[in-house]
Design brief:
It is built from 10 helices and 10 strands. The strands form 2 sheets. It has a 6-stranded mixed sheet with strand order 6-7-8-3-9-10, with helices on both faces. It has a 4-stranded antiparallel sheet with strand order 2-1-4-5, covered by helices on one side. It is globular, with a radius of gyration of 17 Å.
Amino acid sequence: MLRVESINVYYGAIHALMDVSLEVGQGEIVSIIGSNGAGKSTLLRTLSGLKRARTGSIQFMDQDISETQACDIVSMGIVQSPEGRRIFTNMSVSENLQLGAYIRRDAGVGKDMEEVMQRFPRLKERIKQNAGTLSGGEQQMLAIGRALMCRPKLLLLDEPSLGLAPNLVTEIFKIILDINAEGVTVLVVEQNANRALDIAHRAYVLETGRIVLSDTGKALLTNPKVKEAYLGG
């Protein structure tokens, strides 16, 4: 579904991503792990069209999107739930979800809203509340729900467990598995390596802008280098 080939991304003179290549197959969960500052968010921003690669190519469903505008990438089916949630705090839960469907002109928006409510019952209870009054976990659910309202083919999740209590982390990763089981391909970047590798069909390790390892999620969970660097032993 997604093929990234040797992309190089810069912030001014800073070389943020160096010859990064990866693939995401249809129906997979692919995780990218790495420490803070490794370039994980930069990678997702580049896939979303918010940042441009200086060299290399990005193909989505056999179409080159390296120069495609971010709004058109969303229309093609790549949708991101960003780091830090980035919900509209002064708008209601309902309005946030409706904004997730802003590019849609079909009659299924109401039905999809109901499905998001079923998936996230706490959002249904707070549908008219301002999003800024939600807890951190509820805001993360809203950010994911808002992305789902766009009917993604490929869902990009940037640090979905960041700042959440352990019980909510478990809930969020169960939701990711459920979304994938319903046919949505998922690319997740995450500092919580244990969780990210546990749910992944395949995974990559990103260190200081370079992919240094790739394998199945289960294999990387037992890889001595990964265990020492990211899994506490």
